[in-house]
Design brief:
Length: 614
Amino acid sequence: MGVYAGRYLYVDLSSRSWREETISEEQVRKWLLGSGFAAWKYYQQMDSNGAPLDPESPLLIFNGLLAGTFAPTGCRTSWCGRSPLTGIWNEATVGHHWGAELRYSGYDGLIITGRASQPVYLYINGLANTIELRDAAHVWGKDYFETAETLLGETDRRAQVAGIGPAGENLVKIAGVMVGPPHYVRAAARGGMGAVLGSKLLKAIVVRGNQRPEYPDQFAFREVVKAQNAFIKENSVALSHFGTAGGLLGAEKQGDLPIRNWMLGSWPDAEKVSGQTLYSKYLVRHTFCHACPIGCGKEIEVSEGRYIVPRGEGVEYETLAGFSALVMNPEVEAVALANSLCNRYGLDTISTSSVIAFAMEAYERELIGPQDTGGLVLRFGDQDAVLALIEKIAYRRDIGDLLAEGVRAAAEHLGDEARQFAVHVKGMEVPYHDPRAFVHMAVNYATAVRGACHLESLSYWNGYNITLPDLGYPEKVPPHESGALQAKVAYDYQNYVSVYNPLGLCKFIIKAKVGPERLCQIVNSAMGWNWTPQDILTIGERLFQLKRLINVRLGITAADDTLPPRLLREARPDGGAANVLPDLDTMLRTYYELRDWDEQGAPRPRRLEQLGIT
C-alpha cells in the first residue's frame, strides 16, 4: 500500500454484509479523499427523494488523503451524507486518532447503508484481518463515556472508538458522533450525523490496525514535515497555550462574540469565562491529535465547588461562547460542565447552546411557558436551566423534544414571531463568529455548503491579522465595508479551505499562516506530486461546486442564500462592530459572478465543464 490504502468498506447493515471497493489513483487526483471523494460517490448515487434517516440513506465516512501520515495534523476524517437537521449535504469532520487507526486497519473509509435488526457495533480489526458486526444491546442506552470504556475493554485497549450517546439513539437532529476515550473526546458534531448512526442502530465503530503508510521518498517527506512543523509551532503559540478558547476575549473586543442570542454588542463578564481563566484554574494537560505540532486540546477537571466536572476534554471557543455569552452565563465552571454533558450525551455544542438561547428568548416573549418546559423557568443567565435543558434535549423530554429538532424547526412550530430571532442558515445554527463584525463572513454563511459554517472559509481570521499573502491577502481586509472585495474574500477563502477536509489536514494550520505554497510543499512531498498553488484553488473550487450541485438537487436555490433577520437587520448596539450591517445583496451579486452561478443559484454548465464535473 502507498500513502492511502486505495480501498474502502461498503457495509449493508440490513443484510449484515460487506464488501471491499477500490479507489483509483485517477479518482484520488480529481476528488482527493475525505469529503471530496464522499461527495463524488454521493452525487453519483444520491436519491433526492430519500429522507436522511431512511435506512437506504448512506453514511459516508472517509479519511482525508493524508490522514494517518505524519504530515502536520494529518488526522481528519469526514462523516458525510444528507443532514437530518438541514436536509442538505453535510460533512462533519473530526480529528483525534480514529482516522489514523482506520488507515492502519487498511481502509480509507466506509459507506454504510441499511438498518440493523438490533443495536450493533462494527469492529474492524486490521491485526487479524477481521470485520465483525457485534451485538451492542449492552451499551445501547449508555452514554458515550460508558460506551467507549466498555467497547475498548472487550476489543483492544489500543483501538480507537467512534460512536453515539443517548442523543444519537433518540434521533436528536443536533446529535454528533463522538470520537476517542472518555478523558479525551473530539466530535464530528455538526448537522446531526449522530442521529444517522442512531437511525441505523449502529452504536459505534471500533478500529485497530498496524499497516503504516508508505511514501515515494520518506526521507524527503520527513525533512519537509520537520521544517513545516517548526513554522507552525512558531506561529501558533497562543493556540498551543490556551486552545481556541483563548480567543474569546479578542472576539468580544472585535464585536465578534454573540451575546444574549445575538442581541447585544459587548459583555463585561468575558474575562470571567475566558480560556485564560479556565485553563489557569483547571488545566490537567495539553492533548494532541495524531501528527499535530500544535496541541490545542486541553484536558481539565473541576473537583470542588458548585459545578463538579469530571476529568475530560476542555472547552473550545464555540462551546465557551455558546454556553456563556450567548446565554449570559458568567460561570466558567458551569460552561465546563455543559461541555462535559454534551460530550457524554453526544450533542453538538454549537447547535445545543444556540437552541437553548432561542428557547430562553421564546420563554421571555411568552411563546413558551412552564407548561411546555416541565416546570423549568428559562431565563438568560440561569446556568442551572441551561444544564437541565441539555439533558432534556438528549432524551427528548417535554420542551427538549421540540428543541431536539433544531432552531429552524422549533421556530416553525412556534410561528412568525419566533422566526425573527431564530438564528440559522438553511437550518444550521450559526457558529459564533458574527457576520456583522466581518462582513465577508456574511457571504460565506449565506453560501456555505452545509448551511452556516465558519469552517468553510475561516476568512474571519484575516480580521485578526492572520494574513495569507500567497492567497492574495497580505494585509487585513476592511472588516465592515460591504462590496466586491468582501465577496472575493469569501470566494477565495472557500476555494482554499475546501481542500483541507479532503486532504485530512486540520484547518488550524491556516491559523499558523500556512497558505497554498506551504500546503503544496506538504502534499507534493507526501505524494510525489507537482501541485502548484493554482492547482489547490482549482480543485478546491471543483469540490465546492460539486457539493453545490448536490444541494441544488436537494432543492436549494438562490432564495436560500441569505442570513437570519437578526443578523441582516438588527445592528449590534455597541462594542467593536457597533451599527454594522452587511449589505448581503450587493456582495452576493459579485459572488455569483465569481462562481458563475445563474440567477437561481445553480452552477452553469460551462463552469462545470471547465472544472471536469460531468
